[in-house]
Amino acid sequence: MASISNSEGSRAFYSHGKPVYLMSNDVEAAESFEWCRDMQKSVSSYGNVISGLRVGKLASPHELIDHSTICTFITDPKCKESTIMSREKMVRDAIEKKRVIGVLVSKDHASLVEKKIVLPEGEEWALMGAYVMTDCWKERRTGETEPHLMLRLQMVNTEDTWWESKAQSGAPTIGGQYGDCSSCKLPLQKRYREREPFCCRLQCTSASNPIDASNAPFTYAPEFLAATEDVSTVSLDDFEMLPPEPQLFSVEELERRLIPRTKRPNKPSARKEYQAGQASTREHEMSNRSCGYGIRLEAEVDNKWLQTISEEALIAECYFEMPFVEQPTPINFMNTPWEGAYVGIVFNLEDGNQIFLIVPTKESTNGSGGSRSRFQSIFSSLQSGALPVGRELIKKKQSQVPGLRSNHFGKNYGEPYNTVMETKTTPLNQQPRVLREVMDETVKIAAEVSGKDCRANENYLVAYGPNNYMDFHQDGEDDIKGDAIFSVSYGGSATMTFALTRDRLKGRIILQFPIHGNGTIVIQSGKTLNQKYRHRVDCDGIFRIVITARILLSAAEKAARDAQAKKKPKRKSKADELPDGKTNAGHESESERSDGESKSEANLKRRREAVEPAMPSEKRRRSATDEPSATPAPVDPPIATDPARMSAQTSNTPSFSTPTNGHPKIAYAHQGPRGGRSRTTTVVKLGDGKWCRRKRAGQSQ
């Protein structure tokens, strides 16, 4: 189980120093956790709708929570919310059907639970346990005609009970001490909301009536202020335990759960009207959901993008900076199979790089086999598990953070796409039919508008949840063969940003445009696009699906490339380096050398010519021939150390000599800066014809 950062705004109470997170779609509920942050044993909230609970970051929940933790949730029958996790349904399922009434989910993904979107991966997002109710109370309130139910829950998994809400006498202090109880004479505790004291001991006679204890009016109090009402406690064996993988509901099951039904009339005359009304209600309710899974395209995409939009309106939504990006131009779909189905614009960048933005029209979105039906089909496949996705290990970070995975879900089809993640792949011919249909059409459109070969041999499906995004990166991997990379998006909207990579302007944003999940196509075309620019994608919706296609090297092409990489050219040695720092390699061709002159002799000649203007005439005459003289010449005197003579001696002055071993030698005296440390560099021709460069540090001046 991955950890949750305790960022600003997180609400948790602590058990044995470990945080326990409660997710709620009610602000007031989150505030109540301010009350129980320091290892306090009671949690109450007023008007709360529970969305889920996530516990710590350790694998075993037994290490986090003991069996004496108290957690009571107040339910309000006046609540009219229709979510599957509503208060009324929690009570009904717990008392009548004795079923699970809550699930464990991630903190950032509570919104998915509210929309009944099944989270795709077991390792991170699977249901880790469930709430069941063991008993409940009716809270007594003066002047209230309807009682407020208060639930006591148990947290269970498939093995045993590992957390239970249990009120116990002598509960730890909740706040400070505020006097003594008038009945039991023990210190009073302080309520969260009104900051009014109350007695929290069950054995105290005033525990059920705080007015007797504090002589103060109250409108809110924790669980000890409720009078218990017997509800048969059931055994854990009677509850349906959730499996470790997400529980999936069929369309019919969701329809049964979410659409209220009225009693069927007995009279035949009223039966037809009832059936017609039921059909209309069902059609209306299901039209607001995508395949019955609680999400619809209109909830994720601005309505104007689901209508026919013009190229001018598309350009108005984009940001581009000239002269890095030219004025966008419309794409002409006339006399093509997609005339009237798509509108688009093209951004022209430097070096012939181009970015195409193509948006479906209303007819293409709502028509048979259009964007809406494709989105529903892909989304349903993800929810049912027919289209499995997962989070991949990030290879480069395993030594620093073992087990670190990507923040998005992915599935690769075709050639392996090697990135910073360990991406597993499935043969391209085994991809689901809906993906094949989407990418076949996208490939044809991309080839038509870009003029490039877009016969992709790899498709990468990525699913983003809330707060997931792809940071600045480049799609310039070595395995990419073609010049075009294209993608199609469904579901949540996003914003794509391009920035420069050059030194002085690195990070400068030059292009930004929206990507909406109605089947919008983005094509990146150009040989240097992923060298000169980086891009990132920020998701705005709660669930976004992207399919990206590339042309990658085949296994045979990769093997040939790797074999060629092993044949590296021989590394240049320092012996081939001239005194001015230039190399001898390629300096003079064989035809430019005189007949019978070896390469090493030619190198020696060039070295002499390079330093000849600075040589004294006597030394120039002495070294005119490449053959060593019969009598060894005297060696130059050492470098002057007298300050009066230092200015008269020129730095980098060479001296030629022939040592006793017969090998010619050139010595250079290099003076250090401002009369500092000097050194002598000697280039010696060895017996095998090779030159060797040696350095000897001199003494400080």
Automatic annotation (TrEMBL):
Residues 574-604 have a biased composition (Basic and acidic residues). It comes from the Eukaryota. Pfam families: 2OG-FeII_Oxy_2. Residues 650-661 have a biased composition (Low complexity). Residues 692-701 have a biased composition (Basic residues). Signal peptide: none annotated. Residues 406-539 form the Alpha-ketoglutarate-dependent dioxygenase AlkB-like domain. Residues 263-286, 561-701 are annotated as: Disordered. This is Alpha-ketoglutarate-dependent dioxygenase AlkB-like domain-containing protein. It comes from Cyphellophora attinorum. The lineage of its organism: Eukaryota, Fungi, Dikarya, Ascomycota, Pezizomycotina.
